[in-house]
């Protein structure tokens, strides 16, 4: 029973913003469901195959912002064959047909064709923001369509996409009267761009706050751009390669002094050694620094730069910083909340950081809550120390380059170390494991990781019990991805109801058989159970006893999908 | 007999053993073999999974580095960028006085002067002495020099490594009396 008129309830609902809270509102009663669906403007769909585009559009006619994720996470690491799915076109088509006034589209791991981009650009008069992360399938022609047709475009943000560069003039396609740009990120484009067009675009975009350039933008152009846009807050430098004695460099040093609003710095896709000193004047303002693509910066220079960055909250770097360098980070960056250390030589034998660097960080950076750490080795003692020093971890992802390496000091598995992490970090939502691990670590995870939503496992465990500890214990688990572990049919089938409470389960190179997958699919019609191999035809899986190479299952209300390629067998 | 045992130990025969892996990688190799057996093809997986928990293979593993698909877990975009960066090395010619032809090396792969000089010694089968600011290279007939951006011939080792890498256009190992003059 409602004692308030709808308008009042709508007004109250305006204050409820998070997706999960809005979802909860819609479950209270029929009239709240109705009011909620007509006022809902932002929708997040973590798996694009969990619901059909038509159903989305029907339920939320006032939709303004849509976030979609496509391929499973392990697709990022080449574990999903080409053509698996995640096509955005049907979504854009459905939205266009329905006259929804879409303003924002954020996509991750989806296949985006030029046709989709063209349709998008022509269908929504008020379209403002396009964010593509780890997507593929489009070329600079698609970008040209967006630039040309989206009259009120505010944001074009391309992060780590595979874009075919036709070396066209896509940047020149922004019309002269387009002055609304707030954010432009094309760092991932490989090709040349029209520098003059870029400079003119920046000059007529007074609201531009975020600009991330690609490699093809030279230092002299950078300097001119910074002159035009001293209001920039987020800068991604393309090329920083130049002669230290040149005029261009001298001019740049002066211009940088004016850029007092820059709090986020990234890029340096090409760097001249000893040139980073030009950045020192703005380092003190930086809260975010991403040098993880700056292969040209030597460890010593990196350390010198970071010494100036006392306010840093987010730091993404490569492991050439070394353990000692991480010690410097620990003393200089007391406010650090997120740290990512990427490998500079992923297939080499010597990772440049070890457990020592991580321990040093944990001692200095007590506010740390997100970690991605690629290292050469890890010890239980170190993890136990880190757990004690930093109990606030929300995300903890550790990747030992040698995937099954034990504790080098004791030759023991890393069960105790990770056990300490989950026991101490009560707010932990995401965990990635590596190193030698037995079933014991999963016992700990099941026991202690009460808030865990996403778990990534590789080359770990001994028996089905490991997986069962996790499925039984982690009540909030949404995504579980497992590769190369000895978990089989018993683990898969013991608690099948669990999968309806989760977004998805990925298992590859495990011990699961075709028969078990069939059983699961039959008992749980609300799940899509897909199995596929290395690009082979689906009918190679003839016998029930055969091991499944890759299995991906997810809950859905959309039924079996129509766009699966030949090699995917939906059971 | 005792003498010969001591002789072996002193010589550290392992160092001169012909292997394919990088030095100091024994422990890793054993684990890698277990992994490579696991991932090479599908059918044998069922048998080898029994080895999964017990990493006790005692055989001397063939020192090949098995690349596991999707490991380490970094995005293909990032991986490709790294590979492109690696490909763009700084190649310079190296000439040795009296040698019939020149060689080329990528300065980017060396962490510093020590590694560079060792590489040159290996490449040309010679010994370069020890560097000191006062006396240049003492203890041998050879002195490493380089041509910098301004066209001047400089002694290798005076400036910081990073500066050397960006200003070095070519290397010349000078020999004998000419070298003395520096």
UniProtKB/TrEMBL annotation, chain A:
It comes from the Eukaryota. This is Uncharacterized protein.
Automatic annotation (TrEMBL), chain B:
InterPro entries: AUX/IAA_dom, AUX_IAA, PB1-like. Residues 1-66 are annotated as: Disordered. Residues 7-18, 44-58 have a biased composition (Basic and acidic residues). It is found in: Nucleus. GO terms for cellular component: nucleus. Pfam families: AUX_IAA. One of its GO terms (biological process) is regulation of DNA-templated transcription. It comes from the Eukaryota. Aux/IAA proteins are short-lived transcriptional factors that function as repressors of early auxin response genes at low auxin concentrations. Repression is thought to result from the interaction with auxin response factors (ARFs), proteins that bind to the auxin-responsive promoter element (AuxRE). Formation of heterodimers with ARF proteins may alter their ability to modulate early auxin response genes expression. Homodimers and heterodimers. This is Auxin-induced protein.
